[in-house]
Design a protein that fits this description.
Elements: H1 2-36, H2 39-66, H3 75-106, H4 126-139, H5 141-146, E1 147-149, H6 156-159, E2 165-167, H7 172-212, H8 225-256, H9 262-296
Antiparallel strand pairs: 1-2
Helix pairs in contact: 1-2, 1-9, 2-3, 2-9, 3-4, 3-7, 7-8, 8-9
Length: 297
């Protein structure tokens, strides 16, 4: 019981830092959006909101389990927490991909075919964001029907788990339909994000090469803002891919291991939250450099 309390305190501190970072992103870019109405700011607001859902649902789970409130929770709360957590995870992937694409389009030459795709108004992205919510809500729909509070079930096997919600056994067809949909969604949006990040780095490198010819010898020793932006883009994508694939491998390991210990499950939960905690700070740093680069143009 002491280990669960210590784990709860550590996770509450980490999640608290993540929530503060996402609130800063949310408030900061809501203020900028009211003035500039830029697409990039709307996406950052949406990503921060998605991260906060992820962190708050996990915080609720930790408080319930670590501090002994699990007997007070019914199936409805269990369904709601798991469902929102899964939807937020999918939205995080989709929004990060959309952010990278829009930024690549933003700094593309206006005469290029990609530059012509730049939305004329940030409000044009709202239908796409609504579509992402509908898509991820449907893909996660199985959790709303098959999740139960295991502490209200008379099965000792479930009580030995490290969580308080249990996903009931699903029929073969339903199970594989949702698995295939999740895999296709993740593969598609990660592929788009990889392409957009590569194209963005290519544009920044090309611009950097052209700027070098115009710089004086005194300025050659300064790091160009577009080079900083390229590094930030790579770091953001590597950050996302690291936490995503680490979560996948850890989930598979815990799933197929006959006996999982407390430490393994705790590491899995930490990896699952890593991107939501770290991404707001990466996004603030990254967006600032891209802003410098765009102004330099």
């Amino acid at each position: 019981m002491t280990l669960h309390i210590v784990k709860g305190i550590i996770f509450v501190i980490l999640i608290g830092h993540g929530i503060v970072g996402n609130i800063f992103v949310l408030v900061n870019y809501m203020g900028l959006f009211r003035i500039t109405v830029k697409s990039i700011h709307l996406i950052l607001i949406h990503l921060a909101f998605t991260n906060m859902i992820t962190l708050l649902t996990k915080l609720m789970q930790l408080i319930i389990f670590s501090f002994g409130f699990r007997d007070l929770i019914d199936d409805i709360v269990c369904k709601m927490v798991l469902y929102l957590s899964r939807v937020a995870r999918g939205l995080s992937i989709c929004t990060t991909s959309l952010l990278t694409v829009v930024q690549a389009i933003t700094i593309s030459p206006r005469a290029s075919k990609w530059g012509r795709l730049q939305p004329r108004s940030a409000w044009h992205l709202l239908p796409l964001l609504v579509f992402l919510w509908i898509l991820n809500s449907l893909i996660s729909m199985n959790l709303a029907f098959y999740s139960k509070n295991m502490y209200r079930m008379n099965t000792s096997q479930f009580i030995s788990s490290f969580n308080y919600c249990f996903l009931q056994q699903q029929t073969g067809i339903i199970k594989w339909i949702f698995i295939v949909l999740m895999v296709l969604r993740d593969a598609l949006f990660q592929g788009v994000m990889g392409w957009a990040s590569g194209y963005l780095v290519f544009l920044l490198h090309k611009h950097h090469q052209s700027v070098l010819y115009l710089q004086t010898s005194k300025l050659l020793y300064r790091t160009p803002p577009e080079l900083k932006a390229a590094k930030s883009v790579l770091f953001l994508m590597l950050c996302f891919l690291f936490f995503y694939w680490a979560d996948c491998f850890m989930t598979l390991y815990v799933t197929f291991t006959l006996e999982t210990n407390f430490l393994e499950v705790s590491v899995l939960e930490l990896v699952d939250l890593g991107y939501a905690i770290l991404s707001p700070f990466v996004l603030i740093h990254r967006d600032g450099h891209l802003g410098e680069c765009c102004r330099a143009q």
